[in-house]
Specification:
Length: about 450
């Protein structure tokens, strides 16, 4: 590094993408700074994947208690739930993870700055009243929940607030039909909250396979969630301790809490982008090329702030591709095809590859295999859950184009299937694979 710079790389944002880039770059001997205005680990660790999954686990116990009776256990119907204990135990676990992130960064040699960083010029960053010269700058500032402009929007909360509620409400309205809306509908319903989901479209999780989203909707309704499709909120009013949610069909709902889960916008506020040539797209996300370089040659951006695929493993992979580009042989570019993903709804959904709708647009001759069955657990457990799996195959090449699953352990199963799809597996490879019996996953190798 030339003496004119304080750092080789200044990373803004210590979330999934920023931490990975900072510590891997520092560990190869570069001088790296990383700035974080909030808690280390970013959205995923503090108000995303991790606490969300802990809440999903918590919300599944009533069904497990119910199932346990058929398996010979007694008196689990008398279980009671303590929100404060769950919330505080979750917070303690997140604090432990924050400490691990601090140690990882310290051990790598990256210098951690706590505070809001601002870009003052193409190679100049300010934080806590001081300026630092950096040869390269990485923007990894993530996203922030977005609530549309409606009267009373300030009465609604977002997923950020869900993790530290002082008290669990008796009823809740959730607005949106994407990942966060359906995941929190399952969590709140499982914890005993009377839950209503309001979605403006006619299909929840609209980018997913249609058969699967129909199963998700049916499963959610079976578990007691009320779902209104083709409906939107026009305003929210406060009446003493209750909220009134007015809908575009003329009806109103009285509730204790309104959660808006209507997407997230790139976090570019007060970042000093005016001091650079960086360009934003219509959604306010930073425009980058295939090497994550912005319109300013010394400044790069990865993760939710570029709004390609808002998932933690994607932000981490983008970090690795960027490091390769900047400091190694620069041969890799990111492959955005066949990214597996799961929605931790109840029932759970996981998928890799093309939906039936996408496959039929891109290929002339496809076959679709389906299997819909009651999982063995529910035979004695006497729950309503079913399992649905679906595979889409290109008949010309025999390649498997997509695998989708709704049901218990879908995320765990599809992660393994995703490796086969990434490797270009054919239907004949699935057919010649021996199943593991008795399991749900064996259905994927016996589809006829
Ligand atoms: P972030 O993790 O958001 O990190 C950005 C960091 O930058 C933040 O810590 C922020 O405080 C900091 N920052 C912003 N501006 C500045 C500044 N000027 N100076 C200093 N610091 C700044 N993904 C999955 O793969 N699986 C899941 O199950 C999953 N569940 C989710 C559940 C919820 C409720 C939410 C909201 C998201 C979930 N996601 C999940 C998405 C995942 O959390 C994000 O895709 C991921 O965190 C993006 O990483 P990132 O590094 O781009 O940004
Ligand atoms: P999503 O993009 O998944 O869903 C947003 C929802 O809000 C859509 O149903 C959308 O409807 C609706 N919406 C948008 N604008 C409005 C509006 N003005 N009025 C009414 N409804 C509106 O975003 P989320 O907030 O659920 O999650 C953000 C991202 O975080 C996800 O896309 C995902 O990448 C990531 N995430 C990942 C998780 C996981 O991996 N399990 C879990 C949680 C989040 P429409 O479809 O009609 O546009």
């Amino acid at each position: 590094m030339s003496d004119q710079f304080d750092f080789d790389l200044f990373v803004i944002g210590a979330g999934s993408g920023g931490v990975r880039t900072a510590r891997m770059t520092a560990s190869i001997g570069k001088r790296v700074a990383i700035a974080e205005v909030s808690d280390l680990g970013g959205t995923c660790v503090n108000v995303g994947c991790v606490p969300k999954k802990l809440f999903v686990y918590a919300s599944q116990f009533p069904e497990l208690f119910h199932a346990s009776e058929g398996y010979g256990w007694n008196q689990y119907q008398s279980a009671t739930f303590d929100w404060d204990r769950l919330r505080d135990n979750k917070t303690a676990e997140i604090r432990r993870l924050n400490g691990i992130y601090q140690n990882l960064l310290d051990d790598s040699g990256a210098m951690v700055f706590r505070g809001r960083a601002k870009i003052e010029g193409p190679q100049l960053v300010s934080i806590n009243g001081k300026q630092y010269r950096a040869e390269k700058i990485l923007i990894a500032t993530g996203g922030w929940p977005y609530i549309p402009e409606i009267p009373g929007k300030d009465l609604a909360i977002t997923s950020n607030d869900m993790f530290n509620l002082p008290k669990l409400p008796k009823q809740a309205v959730i607005v949106g039909g994407g990942y966060i809306a359906v995941e929190f509908a399952g969590i709140l319903n499982g914890l005993g909250v009377e839950t209503q989901l309001i979605y403006r479209g006619n299909q929840l999780l609209k980018s997913f396979d249609r058969d699967c989203t129909q199963k998700i909707k049916d499963g959610m309704i079976n578990k007691g969630i009320s779902i209104a499709l083709n409906t939107n909120v026009t305003s929210i009013e406060k009446n003493e301790q209750y909220l009134t949610v007015n809908l575009n069909n003329g009806q109103s709902i009285t509730t204790e809490m309104v959660l808006y889960a209507t997407g997230r916008k790139a976090n570019t506020r007060d970042l000093g982008l005016d001091n650079t040539a960086i360009k934003l797209n219509n959604n306010n996300a930073i425009i980058v090329d295939q090497h994550y370089c912005t319109n300013e040659p010394s400044i790069y951006a990865i993760g939710d702030v570029i709004d390609r695929v808002q998932l933690t493993p994607v932000a981490i992979k983008e970090a690795m591709v960027l490091i390769n580009h900047l400091y190694a042989d620069a041969v890799h570019i990111m492959d955005y095809t066949n990214i597996p993903t799961a929605v931790f709804s109840q029932p759970e959904l996981a998928t890799v590859g093309l939906t039936e709708e996408q496959a039929s647009q891109q290929y002339d001759n496809i076959s679709v295999y389906r299997s819909d069955f009651k999982p063995m657990f529910e035979t004695l457990g006497k729950g309503s859950d079913k399992t649905f799996i679906k595979m889409i195959v290109d008949n010309t090449s025999d390649r498997v184009l997509g695998c989708h699953m709704v049901g218990h352990h879908a995320a765990e199963i599809i992660q393994g299937i995703a490796i086969a799809i990434k490797a270009g597996a054919k239907k004949s490879h699935f057919d010649s694979t021996i199943g593991i019996h008795p399991s749900t996953a064996e259905e994927f190798v016996t589809l006829k």
